[in-house]
Design brief:
This protein has 300 residues and is of the alpha/beta class. It has a single domain, classed as TIM Barrel. It has an eight-stranded parallel beta sheet. Helix 4 (114-127) runs parallel beside helix 6 and helix 8 packs parallel to helix 9 (214-225). The protein is globular. Strand 2, helix 2 and strand 3 (74-78) form a beta-alpha-beta unit. The relative contact order is 0.13. It is 48% helix and 13% strand. It catalyses: L-aspartate 4-semialdehyde + pyruvate = (2S,4S)-4-hydroxy-2,3,4,5-tetrahydrodipicolinate + H2O + H(+). Homotetramer; dimer of dimers. Pyruvate binds at residues 47, 206.
């Protein structure tokens, strides 16, 4: 499962000013990330604003992304929802060509019990033609996938190969690390805590800020994975302010502001999300300009 070690990027979906998918911008972004040294890309996760895309748009984005990636890095498809039967049908119908795994967030809004979460993922595992990564993000879904449920799923379904863990609860993370079966991947789903999670045994990150700063992010993560925590420390600290700014008015509006400044794609988001305020945008632009200069100096 080394293909999911390192830095994955929960890629944004670029839109034109009229709200239509910007495929040129998406191509620019994919190439920028690959050139930036990331290990894999996650298409249409939460950061990709998947909740606002129609099924037809999702199909086109999945296919386009696979075509552009063309095997250069590993590729994960985000397929999730709070209607288990519908998610299963989407997974059955999904064209797996070019994809290496499915990332599926725990059901949002319904607030299922742990048994409900287990049964949801059981249905996914029994119908998926690709390996499955769980995704626990209680700040968005309204419910937590407990350590016990994560370990239960990991032990009972061999095709559930890991979890993107974004609870921020280190007591829970410690328990998962201790009790999980060997080979089950724990991946940070929260940029600010990737460094300490790798110190505990996580195998990398699925990053948001890496959309804008793939080189800085992937370099820092690789140092962590090589146990060079002292060397990784500066990169970790350099990203703190930028990361905070990217989330202060919601994601992915913040990182799209940075991508616009970098000339990769526009900053349009779909309602109910809105672009960041001018005040926050100015701070993001200043921060990303400074980080871009640091990276250029490092390359030179």
């Amino acid at each position: 499962m080394n293909k999911f070690y390192g830095t994955g990027i929960a890629i944004v979906t670029p839109f034109h000013a009229d709200g239509q998918v910007d495929y040129d911008g998406l191509k620019n972004l994919i190439n920028y990330l690959i050139d930036g040294g990331v290990e894999y890309i996650v298409s249409l996760g939460t950061t990709g604003e998947s909740a606002t895309l129609s099924q037809d748009e999702k199909k086109k984005v999945f296919t386009f992304t696979a075509d552009v990636v063309d095997g250069r890095v590993n590729l994960v498809a985000g397929i999730a929802g709070n209607n288990t039967a519908e998610v299963v049908e989407q997974i059955k119908a999904f064209d797996i060509a070019g994809y290496d795994a499915i990332l599926s967030a725990s059901p949002q809004y319904n607030k299922p019990t742990q048994e409900g979460i287990y049964q949801h993922y059981k249905a996914i595992a029994q119908n998926a033609k690709l390996p499955v990564l769980l995704y626990n993000v209680p700040s968005r879904t309204g419910s937590n996938v407990s350590a016990e449920t994560t370990v239960r799923l990991a032990r009972e379904f061999k095709n559930i190969i890991g979890i993107k863990e974004a609870s921020g609860n280190f007591d829970q993370i410690n328990q998962i690390m201790r009790d999980k079966p060997e080979g089950f991947l724990v991946i940070s789903g929260d940029d600010p805590v990737s460094f300490p999670m790798i110190a505990l045994g996580a195998v990398g990150v699925i990053s948001v800020v890496g959309n804008a700063l793939p080189r800085q992010t992937s370099d820092m993560i690789r140092k962590c994975l090589n146990y060079d925590f002292k060397g990784a420390q500066k990169g970790h600290y350099d990203l703190i302010d930028f990361t905070r700014l990217c989330f202060v008015e919601g994601s992915p509006a913040g990182v799209k502001t940075a991508l616009k400044q970098l000339g990769i794609c526009g900053d349009t988001v779909r309602l109910p999300l809105v672009q960041v305020s001018e005040h926050t945008a100015a701070k993001i632009i200043k921060e990303v300009q400074g980080l871009a200069v640091l990276q250029q100096q490092k390359v030179s």
